[in-house]
Amino acid sequence: MLDNRPSNHTVSTYITWVNNQLARGVNTQPISNLERGISDGVTLPHLLQILGEEAVPEVVIPPKTEALRKQNIRLCFQYLQQRHIHPRNSTAPDVSNGNVKCIMRLMLALAANFKTYRPDSRAIGYVCKNSEHPSNGNMVSHDSNIGDTDDMGWMYDQVIDTRKQLESLKHLLLKDITDDEKVLLDEVGVEVSEPVCNSCQDTSEKMRSLEHLVTQRDQQLMELKAEVLHLKTRDKYMTNELDERNVQITKLKLLLERKQAVSDSSKPRDKKEARENTKILYYLGTSTTPYLSSCPKPLGEISLRDFKNVVNRAGRYRYNFRTFDRDVGPVKQELAEDGALLPGWEGRIVGFVEELPPGNSLDHIEI
């Protein structure tokens, strides 16, 4: 079965990056193991406090129980979500369980969204995805930009090839020479021990320098990967925000259309039709709430017979209507003849219908 675990050198690069950031904090300890260090419930909150310049809320340091350790990791992920940072394929349970690949993805997300620090150069600044006016482009620590992941992959292959060549060269230069080679060199009067040792020492120093250079390249490659991840995350965030705004605009359009439809339905279709319809309000018995109806005639042409047809109640009733008397003021006028025209009140008919008990005058009998 193939081992998909990252190489020790790759993990070491991430450890170096984490320790470089922790060195900026107060009372923070470097880590020597990536899985145990990030999942201990202490290092990750400290790292986020340094990068985000604010403490992660509600974490308990040090966590005295296993539950508190996992809770601290979960609170760190909640803090990242509040800042719209979503590590790809990495969750709080993965980090709590020490999944090294998920931890590496988390570190890439942090490098992509926070200002990081390298002791051998200046701080590495990334544009926040919520910023509307970036000052110096997306990444200010490199002179060249990475257009896509193919360029990034090519650089990674170059670093791997260089590392393999260095390992082969080291093996060839440091291997022990045989006794026959020593005798042959003695016959020609050559001192073996000291020159060979000096040569090995010089070669070792050169190789350490080359390995340091490769480590720096690995660090830069990690930052480039983080930049690509940041660009993809920013594009996804902007796309989601645009979709949400389009949904809001659609809802507003629908609301405006509904209001327009209601407004159109409340408007009279024709002025003549509006004039020919008269509202009729009438109170039945002792009720204080009037009934509302209408008559398809203009005010001044509505008779008591029309009113009875609107009320449409069987029995014997007395009919009174609100009107205005110049000498008295507002009064109720009783009408009994079906042909009598009803008085108006403020542009409508206001009537009072009172049911008569048995035995009263037959003048008010409704047939």
Short description:
With 367 residues, this protein is α+β, with helices and mostly antiparallel strands. It has eleven helices and six strands.
Q: Which features characterize this protein?
A:
single chain; 367 residues; alpha+beta; six-stranded mixed sheet; 6 strands
Can you offer a commentary on this structure?
There is one protein chain. With 367 residues, the protein is of the alpha+beta class. Helix content is 51%, strand content 11%. Strands 1, 2, 3, 4, 5 and 6 form a 6-stranded mixed beta sheet that branches. The longest helix has 74 residues, at 193-266. Residues 121-152 and 181-196 have low confidence and may be disordered.
**Class inferred from helices and paired strands:** alpha+beta
Determine the strand fraction and express it as a percent band. Answer: 5-15%
Question: Main β-sheet, in a few words?
Answer: 6 strands, mixed
Radius of gyration: 45 Å
Question: What is the straight-line distance between the termini?
Answer: 102 Å
Helical proportion, percent range = 40-55%
Shape: rod-shaped
| Oligomer status | single chain
Spell out the blueprint of helices and strands:
Elements (H helix, E strand, L loop, with lengths): L7 H15 L11 H5 L4 H10 L13 H17 L9 H5 L3 H14 L35 H26 L4 H9 L5 H74 L4 H6 L1 E7 L6 E5 L8 H8 L3 E11 L3 E7 L13 E7 L9 E2 L1
Parallel strand pairs: 1-5
Antiparallel strand pairs: 1-2, 3-4, 3-5, 3-6
